[in-house]
């Protein structure tokens, strides 16, 4: 099962990004192999539709769970339609590594 | 082209795929499709004992539309009883209310899509989760 964590940087020690559509990076964590791959978000500066594009990308990557700070209404609808679990973490100072540790536990 | 239908809000879809008669000699051949919104109409009017106006507001449709859905629902069930045919529940023009949960241990908010069976917090695996009704 794959999980996407929105990240502000390209490595595990980076800060978790609370934005969804405009997050800098997406960390794709695979629960079977325990490996994480970082994918750059190309829509960080988009004027509109960033959430929708990010959600489409996540559906394409065959991810079942997304961890972020908040989801826009369009992204919510889309993720809901494709049965992707949405998780909202509201801690400000948390790194991607800390979230992965929780998932592994 | 006819006017598109307003999506009917359904709080919770039925917990079953259908009903089948038993103890009958007639081999059930046909089946009838009960829509989610029709199930919801029966539930609101006859189980929660709401009047049609309250129920229609809850489903985001007008009272006459609610009455029509309720009537087709009753007729379908009556038809199934009399003709001893199977009832199958299908999606219809429903809009499912999204369900958000909150974990009492770590305050994480999350959804549980249909494909996930465990009712637990995705982060701390706690089973102390509560439904958020927003």
From TrEMBL, chain A:
Domain Dinitrogenase iron-molybdenum cofactor biosynthesis intervals: 15-104
PANTHER family in alphabetical order: DINITROGENASE IRON-MOLYBDENUM COFACTOR PROTEIN-RELATED, IRON-MOLYBDENUM PROTEIN
Name this polypeptide is given: Dinitrogenase iron-molybdenum cofactor biosynthesis protein
Protein's organism: Maribacter luteus
Taxonomy of the source species: Bacteria, Pseudomonadati, Bacteroidota, Flavobacteriia, Flavobacteriales
Automatic annotation (TrEMBL), chain B:
Highest taxon of the lineage: Bacteria
One Pfam family from the record: DUF134
InterPro entries assigned to the protein according to its UniProt record, in alphabetical order: UPF0251 (IPR002852)
Family membership noted in the UniProt record: Belongs to the UPF0251 family.
Name of the protein: DUF134 domain-containing protein
Species this chain originates from: Maribacter luteus
């Amino acid at each position: 099962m794959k999980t996407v964590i929105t990240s502000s940087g390209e490595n595990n020690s980076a800060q978790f990004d609370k934005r969804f559509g405009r997050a800098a990076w997406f960390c794709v964590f695979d629960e079977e192999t325990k490996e994480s791959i970082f994918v750059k978000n190309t829509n960080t500066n988009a004027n509109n539709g960033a959430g929708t594009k990010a959600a489409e990308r996540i559906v394409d990557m065959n991810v079942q769970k997304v961890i972020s700070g908040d989801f826009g209404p369009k992204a919510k609808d889309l993720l809901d339609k494709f049965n992707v679990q949405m998780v909202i973490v509201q801690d400000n100072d948390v790194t991607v590594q800390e979230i992965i540790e929780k998932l592994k536990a | 082209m006819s006017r598109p239908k307003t999506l009917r809000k359904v709080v919770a879809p039925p917990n079953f795929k259908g009903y089948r008669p038993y103890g009958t000699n007639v081999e059930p051949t046909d089946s009838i499709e009960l829509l989610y919104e029709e199930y919801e109409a029966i539930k609101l009017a006859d189980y929660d004992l709401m009047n049609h106006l309250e129920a229609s507001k809850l489903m985001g449709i007008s009272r006459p539309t609610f009455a029509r859905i309720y009537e087709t629902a009753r007729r379908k069930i009556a038809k199934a009883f009399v003709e001893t045919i199977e009832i199958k529940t299908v999606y219809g023009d429903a809009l499912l209310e999204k369900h958000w949960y909150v974990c009492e241990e770590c305050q994480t908010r999350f959804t549980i899509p249909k494909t996930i069976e465990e009712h637990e917090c995705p982060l701390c695996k706690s089973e102390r989760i509560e439904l958020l009704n927003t």
